[in-house]
Write a structure and sequence with these properties.
Order of helices and strands: HHHHHHHHHHHHHHHHHHHHH
Shape: globular
Radius of gyration: 23 Å
Helix content: over 70%
Low-confidence stretches: 6-26, 544-552
Mean pLDDT: 77
Structural class: mainly alpha
């Protein structure tokens, strides 16, 4: 066994290294297996969309699947929303390069679920609404609060869309032999078809199919990989230590989270950011009652937790199987750059243990993960424009369902075009920071306003607006001035702010401003808003809001 073969250069990879990193290898031959399975998946999901389109007759069907999704189905759909290509590709590569540090980072994505489970799921469903803005504006000024909520939601959605679109382009460019531009356009067009015609029903079932495929593919891959080690974790650990450049260092914390301020800030963003992601929150409005909302979180937690453990094991097996095989390195030089870039570790592992057929299956599944997440994001963004801005702010609640559906589909087309344009624009840019930006913005702008609207009687419109915009703007400014953007992207010699993650500073600042401004607001409207909390609290506890929405 040759020791220390994982290249030291890869140890500098960011936690979710950019899919847009330039591919150092020559263009790969067409993967006919992957292309065939891709078309099978596309045809299957188009059939789902055709079926869903026949069942989508109202705004409730379009936004929330009519509230007819079971807890188990919704749990799978939530898992499908959350387990993106970054999970399979980026996090496997992170464990491959960083070892235990990568596992710690994975845990950060998982521990936010108790916040959703115990603080939010039941109340979100009981209030019987469609979107994030519905909840925060329940007893506040509809026009101003919905405008802020829509801005916050669209900011998060656009950040996530960039990550997914560039990821799709680079993955399909490498594995399917398509040009990057064509791959991005294909993803955008398919996303438009799913959302425009099928709405939440189609999006939910595409996510369920994708989650099942991803769980099946990941489990099969880890079983085949572990068979190389006699299904012995002790054997795996020993051989991984021998093969890796940092030896025993892969079994303990290292340099990635060495800065405690960065580590705490990252953790806050990951834990609370998930509770502010609009496309995740929308999933709690698709179930018929609060009990099913709790069950959906329970199932989602189980599926996601299991898959994260699978990803961790895949990273360690790849250290031995991929890291010691010259065919997966450019020009066959061990210790050099990986063929296709650092994020292709899981794909190389699939080929090593399952051949081209399994590589084709897993690449099609990875593409499916991107497609499903993009569809969910587009639906969340379209609902912010049509339901929050058009129907409520502009039309003051007087828009017909037909008009709202029409605007929603127009908004979806616009978001699709924006997503394609951003995907093309960011092709050669390192976009790893955008994942942290997405969670940081959600934790700083959306989460403080949402949790205070649900639990604090003293919240006022003025406090929500000042606090929400403070969190949003401060998070964006801190990220722009951080090393990830100010130095890496903009090319300056030294960052103005030395920390990559903003949540430690921007989220507490948002809470502080919300509390101070709300307490200082002594207007008559503020008193009415405080009094209205009692009605909101009763509805959140008893489900009266859900009953009213259902009857409506």
């Amino acid at each position: 066994m040759k020791a220390r073969l994982v290249p030291a250069a890869l140890l500098a990879l960011s936690p979710l290294t950019s899919f847009a990193a330039p591919i150092v290898a020559e263009k790969q031959p067409l993967n006919l297996n992957a292309i065939g399975m891709f078309f099978v998946f596309v045809l299957a999901t188009l059939a789902i969309t055709w079926w869903a389109a026949r069942r989508t007759r109202s705004t409730a069907d379009f936004y929330t699947a009519g509230g007819g999704i079971s807890g188990f189905q919704n749990g799978l759909a939530i898992a499908g929303d959350y387990m993106s290509a970054a999970t399979l590709l980026g996090l496997t590569s992170l464990v491959f390069t960083k070892g235990y540090d990568g596992f710690v980072y994975i845990i950060g994505f998982f521990v936010g679920w108790p916040v959703i489970t115990f603080l939010m799921a039941e109340r979100l469903r009981n209030l019987g609404k469609y979107t994030f803005a519905d909840i925060v504006s329940y007893r506040l000024d509809q026009t101003r609060v919905r405008s802020f909520a829509a801005i916050g939601s669209l900011t998060v959605v656009c950040c996530y869309l960039i990550v997914q679109m560039v990821g799709a382009g680079q993955l399909i460019k490498l594995l399917f032999g398509l040009d990057y531009q064509m791959a991005v356009v294909v993803v955008g067009v398919l996303m438009l078809v799913y959302v425009i015609f099928g709405g939440m029903i189609a999006t939910t079932w595409v996510q369920i199919v994708k989650a099942v495929l991803l769980l099946a593919g990941g489990t099969s891959l880890v079983l085949m990989a572990m068979s190389e080690f006699g299904f012995s974790f002790e054997n795996l650990a020993g051989r991984a230590i021998e093969a890796h450049a940092i030896g025993h260092g892969i079994m303990g914390p290292g340099s990635m989270l060495a800065d405690p301020i960065n580590a705490v800030s990252l953790s806050l963003g990951l834990v609370f950011g998930i509770a502010g992601l609009p496309h995740i929150l929308m999933r709690f409005f698709t179930v018929p009652n609060a009990r099913e909302a709790r069950r959906s979180v329970l199932f989602a937690t189980g599926f996601i937790g299991f898959f994260f453990l699978v990803v961790c094991v895949l990273g360690y097996t790849a250290i031995v199987i991929v890291g010691t095989d010259p065919q997966y390195f450019v020009d066959g030089k061990l210790g050099g750059a990986l063929v296709g870039g650092g994020n292709m570790v899981a794909m190389h592992l699939a080929k090593a243990v399952g051949g081209n057929l399994f590589l084709g299956f897993l690449s099609a599944v990875a593409f499916a993960t991107i497609l499903a997440v993009v569809a969910g994001l587009a639906l969340a963004g379209a609902s912010a424009i049509s339901h929050d801005l058009y129907a409520t702010v502009l039309k003051k609640g007087r828009a017909s369902e037909k008009d709202e559906m029409r605007v929603s589909r127009i908004a979806t087309v616009c978001l699709g075009l924006v997503a394609i344009g951003l995907g093309l624009l960011f092709e050669q840019m390192n976009i790893a920071f955008l994942v942290g930006l997405t969670f940081g913005v959600a934790a700083s702008a959306n989460f403080p306003v949402l949790i205070m609207a649900m639990y604090w009687r003293g919240l006022t419109t003025r406090g929500a607006l000042w606090g929400g915009f403070t969190g949003l703007v401060s998070a964006l400014v801190l990220v722009i001035l951080s090393p990830a953007v100010w130095v890496t992207v903009l090319g300056h010699a030294k960052a103005i702010v030395p920390y990559d993650h903003p949540a430690l500073f921007s989220m507490p600042l948002a809470f502080l401003v919300i509390v101070v401004v709300s307490n200082l607001d002594r207007s008559a409207r503020a008193e009415r808003e405080r009094a209205a909390y009692d009605d909101q609290f009763v509805r959140a506890q008893t489900g009266l809001g859900a009953a009213a929405a259902s009857s409506h």
